[in-house]
Amino acid sequence: MPTPPPPHHRRPRWGWLLLLAGLLVLSIIVARRLEHPRGSGHAAADGGAGAQGHGARGPQSVVTARAGTRDVPVFLTGLGAVTPTASVAVHSRVDGQLMRVAFQEGQNVKEGDLLAEIDPRPFLSQLEQVRGQLARDKAVLENARVDLRRYTALLEQDSVARQTLDTQRALVRQYQGIVKADQGAVATAELNLAYTRITSPVAGRVGLRLVDPGNIIHAADATGLVVVNTLQPITMIFSVPEDRVPEVLEKLDARQPLEVQALDRTRQRLLDTGTLLTVDNQVDPNTGTVRLKATFPNRESRLFPQQFVNARLRLDLLHGATVVPTASLQHGVQGTFVYVVQANDTVAVRTVMTGPADGEDTVVSQGLRPGEEVVVEGADQLTHGASIRRHAATRGPTAPGVGGSGTGAGDGGR
């Protein structure tokens, strides 16, 4: 009969089983720990709160403003260049020595004011010469007329041949022509003498002197004596998009005066206000714009020829338009929107249609009523339904001013 195995040979099997079971439990615990790390419950809660407008983090600090109503002008803007109403390069009409310059550089002159004088002595001598020739030829003509009257009387007595009378009549007509030529020469000499006094052809501002006294000047000189620019009034040429020209022409044809503002480079300072004169007759194919010309009184001399300024053409006036600060407008895939403050100090997303901008404000044509409160600052952290806390006193839309974008008609629905 065989001997049974010793009891200690069966114990290691149970030990291995217990060890494997322990390892299995440990691996399950580790796996669960890795799948759900510590604190994941709090993260989920935070995520849920964030989806509900960051409620768990508390109200967002914002600055708000209320939509207002006022009349808003509609502008067309463009870059303009100032041009003088008239620009005349003053030349001498006769040749001679420049004796005197009668103006100060930069001086304002009136039409007809003396600018310079040329030596008149050669022209005085020429005038005396042609006057003497005229007097001599007049005497010859008078003598021929006396002979004609005598020959006419003798012909009635049949004491002279008719051919002699006809010859004398032709001689009188010849002398009459010579006298007329002499009279023309006298008029020319008088005119040349008058041209020795060079006067301003227009009223305006004198530029820098181009020729000094003592120089011999000629009527054919390419360089004149000085340039006179008319600055009061003054004009400006600027360009607007071709698709806006029909609106401008419609108002011009209706004899409606169109106001044009001239602003400095920063668009913050109003230099002068004028009116539109005319529209060019062609489109620039390179830029797709049309040139317009406006006139300004320029009483304070703030505009100067060749100065670059910003032009604003006032096309229309929107009466009682709803306006909000431009900073309150947000842009997303759904278009332009604002955060409207609700009664419970939360915000709601509201899609709006915008119009022209004026200063720091923009017209809202649809989607917002006057008096509604919108978020101006702090909107970058907001979502629909978020709680807010006003960080500063509520302010209203700004008053109309010179600066700002000054854009023309609105974008419709941006």
From TrEMBL:
<feature type="domain" description="Multidrug resistance protein MdtA-like barrel-sandwich hybrid">
    <location>
        <begin position="88"/>
        <end position="228"/>
    </location>
</feature>
<dbReference type="Pfam" id="PF25944">
    <property type="entry name" value="Beta-barrel_RND"/>
</dbReference>
<dbReference type="GO" id="GO:0015562">
    <property type="term" value="F:efflux transmembrane transporter activity"/>
</dbReference>
<dbReference type="Pfam" id="PF25967">
    <property type="entry name" value="RND-MFP_C"/>
</dbReference>
<keyword id="KW-0813">Transport</keyword>
<dbReference type="GO" id="GO:1990281">
    <property type="term" value="C:efflux pump complex"/>
</dbReference>
<dbReference type="InterPro" id="IPR006143">
    <property type="entry name" value="RND_pump_MFP"/>
</dbReference>
<comment type="similarity">
    <text>Belongs to the membrane fusion protein (MFP) (TC 8.A.1) family.</text>
</comment>
<dbReference type="InterPro" id="IPR058626">
    <property type="entry name" value="MdtA-like_b-barrel"/>
</dbReference>
<keyword id="KW-0472">Membrane</keyword>
<feature type="compositionally biased region" description="Gly residues">
    <location>
        <begin position="47"/>
        <end position="56"/>
    </location>
</feature>
<dbReference type="InterPro" id="IPR058624">
    <property type="entry name" value="MdtA-like_HH"/>
</dbReference>
<feature type="region of interest" description="Disordered">
    <location>
        <begin position="391"/>
        <end position="414"/>
    </location>
</feature>
<feature type="domain" description="Multidrug resistance protein MdtA-like beta-barrel">
    <location>
        <begin position="233"/>
        <end position="316"/>
    </location>
</feature>
<protein>
    <submittedName>
        <fullName>MdtA/MuxA family multidrug efflux RND transporter periplasmic adaptor subunit</fullName>
    </submittedName>
</protein>
<feature type="compositionally biased region" description="Gly residues">
    <location>
        <begin position="401"/>
        <end position="414"/>
    </location>
</feature>
<dbReference type="Pfam" id="PF25917">
    <property type="entry name" value="BSH_RND"/>
</dbReference>
<keyword id="KW-0997">Cell inner membrane</keyword>
<keyword id="KW-1003">Cell membrane</keyword>
<dbReference type="InterPro" id="IPR058625">
    <property type="entry name" value="MdtA-like_BSH"/>
</dbReference>
<feature type="domain" description="Multidrug resistance protein MdtA-like C-terminal permuted SH3">
    <location>
        <begin position="321"/>
        <end position="380"/>
    </location>
</feature>
<dbReference type="Pfam" id="PF25876">
    <property type="entry name" value="HH_MFP_RND"/>
</dbReference>
<feature type="domain" description="Multidrug resistance protein MdtA-like alpha-helical hairpin">
    <location>
        <begin position="126"/>
        <end position="196"/>
    </location>
</feature>
<feature type="region of interest" description="Disordered">
    <location>
        <begin position="39"/>
        <end position="61"/>
    </location>
</feature>
<dbReference type="InterPro" id="IPR058627">
    <property type="entry name" value="MdtA-like_C"/>
</dbReference>
